[in-house]
Design brief:
With 416 residues, the protein is of the alpha+beta class. The chain has 15 helices and 11 strands. The chain has 3 domains: 12-109, no CATH class; 113-164; 168-413.
Length: 416
């Protein structure tokens, strides 16, 4: 028997094994989901066990199961029969209380992982007409509601979501820090690569929030001013304490015209790359070590001494490399006037860089031109997906100190 024949004979067996494993995993998922729903209902009923009507009967009791429905998951369709609850209570205004599962909300037909997959496929260059084939290979040939027509409808919904999101009010939160960047992606709008202007904020309770995803003319001052004015007009009337970004942005010219009291912090990752570009590669390891000693110093005084040492070592032969650091000295060391617990968050634009590493993986494969709204919408959906995994800032109480006007020196609170 030839080698090709042997491989051909093995292929069906491999497919069978894969399908068997998928079915086992799907059966396990069904069992786990059913148990989780039962536990959720049991906890809900137990919390109201003492609540009874005038005849002494419990107000909250089990009420059988809803009709079976299929939920599309990463393992394919999983059948679910959700338990029901009869709740005889009313809320404070006399409206009946209704039980709603947090695990399986009403009318859910696709898990979040599937919803996230769709914009990823779209940005990966899969055409609208190619979605049915792509999705069938992942979820099986009978996956309902995931046709190319679905994608057209979803794109319309996403565009509406994006437009509403860009107009949402921001006045309910105080934003203490901003991370900003202009990110170029490989999607062409009107003949040029798109430059997406991104702003992430940190609220006074430590949450990182996606604030802006706008297209810009390169990274110009006017484009950034439009973004900042939009934030201010929608409720960000109190200037953030600090903004972190790359030194090449037109953002820094726009910032004082909208938020004149916001301090500037240059990103050390971008600055290191810029300095290394002005040095021969043989010196990169040594230069990195000296730059690291600057921005990882325990105090501003130690950082300035490390900066002076860097200048003594490289100025004679590579003055442009030294000038690249010294010209932004104050903006590079601004973080010393903020809580030490936040330094690791403030020295780089990592929240944006880590998010867009995923976006770039998807957009780098996209060919041809796209509409402005389609590009912004897809990037917005991917950023929203990443936002759910962002970590809160450490030492949230320090954010409250900053809001109250407490000063910090070398990361330590200054006594009033």
């Amino acid at each position: 028997m030839s080698k090709g024949t042997e491989q051909g004979a093995q292929a069906p067996a491999a497919t069978v094994v894969r399908d068997v494993l998928t079915e086992i995993a799907r059966a396990g998922a069904k069992k786990m989901l059913a148990q989780a729903l039962e536990d959720e209902v049991a906890a809900y009923i137990a919390a109201a066990v003492e609540e009874r009507d005038e005849r002494g009967r419990r107000l909250v009791v089990r009420n059988g199961h809803a009709q079976e429905r299929e939920v599309q998951t990463g393992l394919g369709p999983v059948p679910v029969r959700a338990p029901r609850v009869r709740d005889g209570r009313t809320d404070g205004v006399g409206e009946p209380v209704r039980y709603t599962s947090k695990i399986l909300p009403p009318y859910l037909r696709k898990t979040r992982s599937v919803e996230e997959l769709l914009p990823w496929l779209y940005l990966s260059g899969v055409s609208t007409n190619g979605f049915q084939q792509a999705l069938a290979s992942i979820f099986g040939p009978d996956a309902p509601g995931l046709s190319s027509r679905t994608i057209v409808r979803l794109k319309e919904v996403w565009e509406e979501e994006y437009e509403a999101w860009t107009r949402r009010p921001l006045g309910s939160k105080r934003y203490v820090y901003l991370w900003v960047d202009g990110v170029h992606v490989n999607v062409r709008l009107t003949g040029e690569r798109a430059c997406i202007l991104v702003v992430i904020g940190a609220t006074s309770d430590g949450e990182k929030v996606l604030l802006a995803v706008h297209d810009g003319v390169r990274e110009s001052e006017e484009s950034w001013k439009d973004v900042l004015l939009s934030l201010r007009d929608r409720g960000m009337t109190v200037a953030p304490e600090l903004a972190i970004g790359d030194g090449a942005l037109g953002f820094w010219a726009a910032l004082p015209k909208v938020f004149p009291t916001t301090r500037e912090q240059r990103c050390w990752v971008h600055k290191t790359a810029n300095v290394l570009n002005k040095l021969p590669k043989t010196l990169h390891p040594e230069a990195k070590r000296h730059l690291h000693q600057i921005w990882m110093a325990e105090s501003r005084a130690n950082a300035l001494r490390a900066l002076a040492s860097f200048g003594e070592l490289f100025r004679a032969k590579y003055p442009k490399a030294v000038e690249c650091v010294e010209k932004d000295r104050d903006a590079l060391l601004a973080f010393y006037d903020f809580p030490a617990e936040h330094w690791k968050h403030l020295r780089t634009t990592n929240p944006i860089e880590s998010t867009f590493s995923t976006v770039r993986l998807r957009t780098d494969r996209t060919k041809g031109s796209g509409s402005r709204i389609a590009c912004l919408t897809m990037v917005f959906k991917l950023c929203q997906s990443a936002e759910r995994s962002w970590r809160r800032l450490d030492a949230v109480e320090r954010l409250g100190d900053l809001v109250q006007g407490v000063r910090f020196q070398d990361g330590i609170k200054v006594a009033a």
